[in-house]
Structure formats: structure tokens, C-alpha cells
Amino acid sequence: MKLTKSLICLLIIASATAHANAGEPLQPLTLQPDWIINVNCAGILLAKDRGWYEDAGIDLTIKSWKAGISPSDEVVHGNAHIGLAEGALLISGFDIPGLARGF
């Protein structure tokens, strides 16, 4: 799962890098994790800490998870651009685009 989330992070950076130009304002991007932030988000946190998102033109905000928060609902309601969630949403007919699943 850690590898999948790291790959998602790299895909985000790679896709944004093609559009990032010096002097342009950063594009805001909000991420809603599906659990308390810990080592499972290491790739995302490392990239943010090292400024890789900014280098790619992204102003990343990582929201805190709390009991009762559904990352998919946060995306659907416009409170986050990306939500980390279980792959079951993709096969259950939930109307939300998916990049990858963890397990």
C-alpha cells in the first residue's frame, strides 16, 4: 500500500511538472487521507517536505483525518481534490474517478 501511495504521489508530480513554469502561481491541491497520517503516507510527506510539489507547481494541503470523515465524501463534496480510500469504492458503483487502489 505504501508503494501504491508513493506511486500516486509521483504521478501527481509528473503530471504537474509538465505544466509548471517559473513565476506562475502554484495550483492548490488538497489531499484527504483515509487514516491518521503516519508512515503509510511517507512518500507524500517526504515529497512535500523536500518541496517537490512546489517544484511541480502544486500547493499541497494535507488534511487531518478524524473519525467519521470519509475521504470519498470529501472529494465528492468539493472539500478535497484527492482522497485516499479503499478500492471497494471503485467496484461498488460510487461515482468518483479513481487513480489506483492500495490493496
Sequence-ordered SSE layout with sheet pairings:
Blueprint: H1 2-17, E1 27-32, H2 42-49, H3 52-55, E2 58-62, H4 71-76, E3 82-83, H5 88-91
Parallel strand pairs: 1-2, 1-3
Helix pairs in contact: 1-2
Question: Counting H and I runs of at least 4 residues, what is the number of helices?
Answer: 5
Remind me, CATH topology? D-Maltodextrin-Binding Protein, domain 2
Cα(first) to Cα(last) distance is 6 Å
User: Biggest sheet: strands side by side, in what order?
Assistant: 2-1-3
- Sheet having the most strands: 3 strands, parallel
The CATH architecture classification is 3-Layer(aba) Sandwich
- What is the share of helical residues? 25-40%
Q: Overall mean pLDDT score?
A: 79
Multimerization state = single chain
Number of strands: 3
User: Uncertain spans, ≥5 residues at pLDDT below 50?
Assistant: none
InterPro entries: NMT1/THI5 (IPR027939), SsuA/THI5 (IPR015168)
Protein name: Thiamine pyrimidine synthase
Domain SsuA/THI5-like: 38-87
Subunit structure: Homodimer.
